[in-house]
User: Fold these one by one.
Assistant:
Number 1:
Amino acid sequence: LEDIRADFAANVSHELRTPLTAIRGFAETLLDGAYCQPESALRFAQIIHNEAERLSELIEDVLKLSKIESGRVAIAKESVDVLELVHEVMGRLHERMKKHQIKIDIPDDLPPIQGDKGLLAQALHNLLDNAVKYTQLQGLIAVSAKQQDGEILLSVRDNGIGIPEEAKERIFERFYRVDRARTRRFGGTGLGLAIVKHIVETHKGGLQLNSVEGKGTEVIISLPIMERVEKE
Ligand code: ADP
């Protein structure tokens, strides 16, 4: 555990250093005189702003992850209606999903999940955020849910760029990103799926990834049904 902690600290420092170096570099260039040339000044200020945004996104994600991992926060055992959850999270992403084709397939009589609504919303948010990020405009994003073997299976599927075979095993690791070019193009902290994994694990649920490069990706999470856990 100590090794994992040390590794994590090293990774976090490294990830924080990248935007920080850019911020310092461009601020110095501005101070050295670039502020006198309005066009460059504007461009550099924009870069500083973007990198600062990235920095706060990273810090937010690191905090979320360590909060869930610490086990110090109580995980609520609420009754969570899947359709409501999906509508709530999609509402938040509405602006970014406007141009995508959205399909929702959730039966009216689906039993509720037993879990922590806030955390489940976070997990679904991260999956949908990826579906949006890695799928072209007009692409398809489908969310479906069903009951199977005493569990709820919640699936988020897209027809985006997909994940290469060799990356699939590592995709849920912290800070793992398929390649640097993708990250430059799409942004992201590399922590989104690690957070999903932790949330699913705290719910004693399961995760499944189906993806074909160039065709699309589906992530299925299985979660306990309300009644089942109540009986235990
Ligand atoms: P990030 O913040 O970089 O998106 P994640 O942990 O959410 O980090 O995802 C890890 C990597 O998995 C991403 O960098 C991306 O390359 C790949 N990935 C995740 N979801 C998808 C998806 N729906 N389609 C294609 N690639 C994906």
Number 2:
Amino acid sequence: MLYYCAVRVILVRDYDQVSVRAAQFVADEIKKNPSLVLGLPTGSTPVGMYKELVKLFQSGTISFKKASAFQLDEYVGLAPDHPQSYQFFLKDHFLDNVDFPASNAHFLDGMSQDIPKTCDIYETSIRKSGGLGLVILGIGRDGHIAFNEPGSSLSSRTRLKTLDHTTIRDNARFFDQPEDVPKFAVTMGVGTIMDSKMVLLLASGRNKAQVVSDVVEGPMTAMVTGSILQMHPKVTVIIDGEAATRLRRLDYYTKVEEMWDEKLSV
Ligand code: GLP
């Protein structure tokens, strides 16, 4: 087999290209399997990808009519109509702008009075939907995927998580006052994400360079929860030049992609 990277790394020029390439990736998978079960991320990184997916929908290239979605994580204490809730984000940037059936979109209830029960029900819904087919991820500067902060169990399932001070600081830019940032979240576990058939991770910009190298090439450790993706059989990482600056084997990844393209074009 030509392709044998533990993690497939696709290097593109800049943030716009990350968005276009990621949308193309998702579109290809939706075309192969219209009933794809998606795990959907928030944060600033996937915003461009969602815009591109909406364009692909509007041009009639793809449809989400048969697809399902599960949000990756949600703040505790924010109602679904709070502009900073992740449910609001996903509807606003993506779900409400395409033909996604409302009944196929699953959200975590950050207002639940019984969070463990909510989490169990969520895991059951994922199983009932046939399991996650493609989880799309951003990456926190401390290496967290969804809200699986450093030190999370690498086999964890959906649960309540106390946020790390780095994450609270990073996310403060979305709130009027730093003290408004929720301190807790409900999140799919690392084990939940690892059960997905495919994973797509996106990163852009110099401030993600260190964590990208930790995730792709660093030792596998619960201190960088994204590094467990090295154990996943089908992970693709799409990054721009700035996010790639600390990768030791960048030439190799680029060469593999070129060889793969040549093979596909013969
Ligand atoms: C939050 C989200 C993560 C996301 C991270 C990075 O903590 N829970 O899912 O990956 O932010 O966000 P950004 O893309 O804005 O750097």
